[in-house]
Amino acid sequence: MTANVEGPAEAVSCAQLSYSFGATNAVDGLDLSVVEGETFGLLGPNGAGKTTAIRCITTLLPVPAGTVRVFGHDAAGEQMAVRRMLGYVPQQLSADAGLTGRENVALFARVFDVPRRERAERVGQALAAVDLEDAADRLASTYSGGMVRRLELAQALVSAPRLLILDEPTIGLDPIARTGVWDHINAVRAATGMTVLVTTHYMDEADQYCDRVGLMHRGRIRALGTPAELRRGLGERRRAEGTAASGALPTLEDVFRDVAGSGLDDKSGDFRDVRSTRRTAHRVG
Amino acid sequence: MSEAPAAPHTVSADPLPGKDIGLLLRPPRPRAGWRLLPARVDAMCAVELQKLRHDRTELYTRAVQPALWLLIFGQTFTRIKAIPTDGIPYIDYLAPGIIAQSAMFIAIFYGIQIIWERDAGILNKLLVTPTPRAALITGKAFAAGVKSLIQAVVVVVIAAVLGVALTWNPLKLLGVAAAVILGSAFFSCLSMTIAGIVLSRDRLMGFGQAITMPLFFGSNALYPVSVMPGWLQAVSLANPLSYQVDALRGLLLGTHAHLAADFGVLFVAAAAGIAAASSLLGRLAR
Ligand SMILES: Nc1ncnc2c1ncn2[C@@H]1O[C@H](COP(=O)(O)OP(=O)(O)OP(=O)(O)O)[C@@H](O)[C@H]1O
Ligand SMILES: [Mg+2]
After folding, report:
1. With contacts defined as CB-CB under 8 Å, which chain A residues touch B37?
2. Rounded mean pLDDT of B98-126?
3. Residue A142 half-sphere exposure, CB side, CA atoms within 13 Å?
4. Is B62 part of a structural domain of the chain?
5. Using H for helix, E for strand and C for coil, what is the string for B146-192?
6. What's this model's pTM, rounded to 2 decimal places?
7. Sign of CA dihedral B41, B43, B44, B48
8. Whose CA is nearest to atom 24 of ligand 1?
9. What is the pLDDT of residue A1?
10. Which-ligand-closest: CA of B124?
11. Overall domain count for chain B
């Protein structure tokens, strides 16, 4: 709505974004453009810098002026405006175990300035949208992992964000809970038209649910396109090189392995990465 | 750059069958600047009260220590008459000190909660809401104040049961509430400041334990400043707890107090604490 006249607006743009923790260049010259209305998947091995990039976009980490924009607003200078447009679900399961589901959502209604008279109704709608009405008045400590994720989705949705940012929304969930989370993301997205930026390790999910994906490795995007484009691209290259496996079309996972080297389990993913991923898999509390 | 979404999603007829999510299509209107802070304080206090409602064990376990202080220390020293208290029974003299002490104990460990929230990702999520860091810290500080206030009510009731002659003047009780909340705001910010420096629960526990006793004994909570050695008097003069106790004594017992100075110091201390904790909050977000 703000940017160029033709075509949809840019929901997120990063221009040569870099962020270092001491000597670790977690994000290293990232260029990223998420178009309004799409579901964009940021993929990459452990330690690729996905979470760091997302923390830069959500204003959690300080960035230089002009490098990160959300719907045209600078994440450095207009933090409040950026935050008002965001719904954010971090990598960890982060509902407050000492509160009920409803109270968890109500907190976010309050801090997003939902007026008192419509608070209860709005909270109810957010809980209904993720099918948690029946469990709403139970403590979140009694929720399963999939329910916590849906609760977090409700927390993010209660402020009607234009951009939903999900950091590994299905990590540590069983296949049914994973499908459940994605079904709700897609239903809400279809109903509201919001933009979704998601990171994941699950290539099947990316293939199935993302309009476009960016494969990140060592702080930068190394391959970008629709899942079909990336698969086709790798297939064509392999055919040209004569290394194509007999007839089988490459999967997104092949593309992932191609980009990240064979480094799915060695090299990348230092101890901290593995530990934080494991912690995520635990339930709240 | 690659092309825009290959297949733009058609908004399906009814993605959430039978559900009204009309409100979720409209972002709430931002509150005007000056109303933001009270709204955030309100939100944080509401959460604190909700948590207390779900789990009251802390309320009960925390009542044990002050009860013992009043029951054993208070009654014994009332009989010994070793401490000059201007003619009031020692247990009466002690009661405001124990109210302040038990409120401080709650506040000084409040930073543990913020570290827990950080480890659980809750803090990150709150920081991605339209809540300036100072507003978040102020909200937390007052939430700690509310928790301490409930603790103070418990101690007042215990003291009353033990026969301490406290005021029931509502205006003075309001002043008591203000002193408890301001003091707790300071001590919780002290705790959150240390949290922002040490970044770990265990280390914060250590710090908390290391400073509570000096703060307590280096104040007028147990004995008047006049009986302290000179160096301890200097410590007491720089200790916000002393001003809080002075105010509580003046209001609850009607002893001679320096209310204006007491509230002035408490207010400035709380404001400085909020500023310090807010400036270090970024370290917890990193
Ligand atoms: N708070 C931190 N302090 C120090 N180093 C960090 C911190 N956060 C991330 N890093 C480092 O930055 C790099 C990128 O980490 P990041 O968490 O962004 O990766 P990721 O792609 O999200 O990985 P994962 O898939 O495991 O979540 C890693 O090398 C990591 O060790
Ligand atoms: Mg990550």
Report:
1. none
2. 95
3. 10
4. yes
5. HHHHHHHHHHHHHHHHCCCCCCCCHHHHHHHHHHHHHHHHHHHHHHH
6. 0.90
7. positive
8. A46
9. 45
10. 1
11. 1
Ligand 1: atom nearest CA of A54 is 18
* B78 assigned to some structural domain: yes
Please check the confidence at residue A242 and state whether its pLDDT lies above 80.
no
For residue B286, give the ligand 1 atom closest to its CA. 1
Enter the ipTM.
0.89
What whole-number distance in Å separates Cα of residue B93 and Cα of residue A146?
A: 55
Say whether A191 and B15 touch across the interface (CB within 8 A). Answer: yes
The whole-number pLDDT of residue A239 equals 84
- List, in order of start, the domains of chain A with CATH numbers: 10-225 (3.40.50.300)
Q: What is the mean pLDDT of residues B52-64?
A: 92
Nearest to A111 among B22, B29, B40 (CB): B40
Residue B55: domain span: 35-285
CB-CB under 8 Å, A37 with B5: yes
Task: Identify which of A51-55, A171-175, B60-64 has the greatest average pLDDT.
Answer: A51-55
The DSSP call for residue B22 is G
Q: In sequence order, what are the residues at sequence separation of 6 or more whose Cβ sits closer than 8 angstroms to the Cβ of residue B62?
A: B102, B105, B106, B151, B154
Residue B5, in any domain of the structure: no
pLDDT value at A56 more than 90: yes
Residues of chain A with pLDDT > 70: what percent? 88
Determine which residue's CA is closest to atom 25 belonging to ligand 1: A46
Q: Please, which pLDDT band fits residue B86 given cuts at 50, 70 and 90?
A: confident
Assess if residue B8 is contained within a domain: no
| Count, residues in chain A | 285
Residues B129-156 pLDDT 10s: 999 999 999 999 999 999 999 999 999 9
- Count CA atoms within 13 Å of residue B113 on its CB side: 20
**Closest protein CA for atom 12 of ligand 1:** A26
Whether the CB of A273 sits within 6 Å of ligand 1 = yes
Contact B24 A115 (CB under 8 A): no
- Residue A48 Cβ inside 6 Å of ligand 1? The answer reads yes
Contact B4 A35 (CB under 8 A): yes
Closest CA to A10 of A104, A85, A121, A96: A85
Q: Between chains, do B24 and A125 touch, taking CB under 8 Å as contact?
A: yes
- List pLDDT tens digits, range B233-258: 999 999 999 999 999 999 999 999 99
A51 touches ligand 1 (CB under 6 Å) = yes
